[in-house]
Amino acid sequence: MKISTRGRYALRTMIDIAVNSEGGRNITIKEISKRQGISVKYLEQIVSVLSKARLLRSVRGAQGGYRLSRAPEEYTVGEILRLAEGGLAPVECLDSEENICPRRGNCSTLAFWEGLNKVISDYVDSVTLADLASRERESHAGGEYCI
Q1: What's the CA gap between 96 and 75, in Å, rounded?
Q2: What is the pLDDT of residues 60-100, one digit of tens each?
């Protein structure tokens, strides 16, 4: 499995907003772009997806921008990546709730893929946005942190 730039940038965007919006400050796409080195145009696409899914709240006006719609502890990395990537299953037959693969009854590798999918899901769902935001804050005290 390989996470695309869309997934990585969505996660970096959410971390950036979590770290920089303390005190209720709204964060603009331009600010995120400058700090994260992501083009404004690409960020607009990513933020649109995050906003439509109500992970972010948009505020218009002179003091406008984006902010988290929930506390950072209430987001998991899995939720953010699944939204950006469209899923995290290692094989196509596990992409939906019900496995409709015609070979599922006699597939000798299905149990392996299901196990891998569970390990991936358990891990990404165990890490919160607050965890990564905390690491980001720590990194500013002593070095670079890259996702």
Answers
A1: 22
A2: 888 789 999 999 999 999 999 999 999 999 998 898 888 88
Tell me the C-alpha distance between 77 and 135, whole Å. 14
Q: Residues 24-47: pLDDT tens digits?
A: 889 999 999 999 999 999 999 999
Report which of 113, 111, 122 is spatially closest to residue 95, judged by C-alpha positions. 113
| Nearest Cα residue to 132 out of 92, 76, 60, 48 | 76
Please state, in angstroms and rounded to a whole number, the distance separating the CA atoms of residues 21 and 15. Answer: 10
Select 5-87+128-142's CATH number: 1.10.10.10, 3.90.950.10, 3.40.50.300, 3.30.930.10.
1.10.10.10
Tokens of 40: 């404004």
Task: Provide the 3-class DSSP secondary structure of residue 146.
Answer: coil
Q: Considering only CA atoms, which of 47, 86, 49, 53 is closest in space to residue 70?
A: 53
10 contacts 44 by C-beta, under 8 angstroms? no
Q: What is the mean pLDDT of the chain?
A: 92
Q: What are the CA-CA distances from residue 73 to residues 41, 85, 96, 128 (Å)?
A: 28, 21, 27, 6
